[in-house]
Amino acid sequence: MTRALSAPDADRAAAFAADARGDGLAVSLVGECATEFEGRAERSLPAGVRSVLWKPDDTVLVHGATGRDPDAWATGGSVAVEATDGRLELRCGDGDAADALTVRFDSVQHAAAFDPADADAEVSGTESDLKERVLADPDLVEPGFQPRSTERETPAGPVDVYGRGRDGAVVAVELKARRVGPAAASQLERYVNALRRDLHADADVRGVLVAPEITEKARRLLAENGLSFSPVE
Amino acid sequence: MTRALSAPDADRAAAFAADARGDGLAVSLVGECATEFEGRAERSLPAGVRSVLWKPDDTVLVHGATGRDPDAWATGGSVAVEATDGRLELRCGDGDAADALTVRFDSVQHAAAFDPADADAEVSGTESDLKERVLADPDLVEPGFQPRSTERETPAGPVDVYGRGRDGAVVAVELKARRVGPAAASQLERYVNALRRDLHADADVRGVLVAPEITEKARRLLAENGLSFSPVE
DNA sequence: CGGTTCATGTCGCAC
DNA sequence: GTGCGACGTGAACCG
């Protein structure tokens, strides 16, 4: 099921990779390579030893020594493998779009092929969890808050939680599962403005940003617009 | 320099990985594994064959069959490798923070160690390129626009390009290298509002969003706030 | 397919 | 270290 090659020449490596991908396997290549990307931007990597992962969905990832994100990558397009000039070359072309990645190996130190899993993860602790909590305990938003609906549509987009305050005012709630900055404050402001416009002119609309923490600039933005922040957890 | 093992037992795989990382190498492991993440969120992956890349900076990436992003990962913390119960286990703990990832292998099909490059890329086509273009040809913003400074500070943050229009009005320019949505329109609005507040009350301040394309909702947002959009490239 | 928003976003830079 | 915004963001969700 899992195959491997050590220090193959370009022809053997190309055949190995093509065969493996033909069988629906993923291919891991380690070797000295350089990359060229042209498309939404232009980016090239000098020659150096890297790990290249070619997935069954034709995602190609080029990983260097550090970081979570690949140094170069290609998604969505087709991938062609070839040994030219004694060098293994992957050409990843997003047929229609202009995005094109080329990975050229000076040498392949190691190649492995395997049949990877595609399983879904169990998740929790996300924004929708926070929504559950707020619906279960609306006082987290403000004392006496009464939720009416979630994802209520406005011209500016859906409001996370929509309801009424103890005073009868409309309350729009924006939820964030982590520290929030100015962008989140603006998002809430857009929703509140849209509601003020949509509802009767005399309707009182307030906005509450619910998150574990907030930056100073975001706090000021909220204050300027008469919006409030409610910390949770 | 590059070492490899085929179908090692847990003890051999653990020793191999520990040695390699001790030598500053990166380790690639392929095998049946399950993961547990606990921290900012909770997420777990069921057992399945995956590729695990353990980098010299102690980034650990767990890749499945599809997608650019890893199915699970850990960065920043320390990594401990151990063979317990005949199973290879990576424990990635962000010492102080709560983020913790555990990767437990039922079996290791393949292990490779190599010395990866950490080279910087040549980049172009980014937002700062767009800035160059706008400074070289200010008419891209609007006819007669005269840039005065870049990254001009405001209480809301730095304005990409700051200058004057033909009519003498202050013009704030926000640059985006690709299609923009409501968030970019709000960002420009924040800058313009900050400038209107900061400058003399009688100062005329306008805002221009420069980008290749804009969504309809963003266009409406701009219009509502008297801001404009200028397409480029 | 486009539009919008979420993310364990990550990453880089300035203060 | 925190704050802030860009990113070839990616990925899900919804029309």
TrEMBL record, chains A, B:
Q: Which residues form the Endonuclease NucS C-terminal domain?
A: 127-232
Which positions fall inside the Endonuclease NucS N-terminal PH-like domain? 29-118
Annotated InterPro entries? Endonuclease_NucS, NucS_C, NucS_N, NucS_N_sf, tRNA_endonuc-like_dom_sf
* This protein's UniProt keywords: Cytoplasm, DNA-binding, Endonuclease, Hydrolase, Nuclease
Q: Which GO terms describe its molecular function?
A: DNA binding; endonuclease activity; hydrolase activity
Enumerate the residue ranges of region (Disordered): 143-162
* Enzyme nomenclature, EC number: 3.1.-.-
Looking up Pfam families in the UniProt record yields:
NucS_C, NucS_N
Protein name listed in UniProt? Endonuclease NucS
Q: Which organism is it from?
A: Halobacterium hubeiense
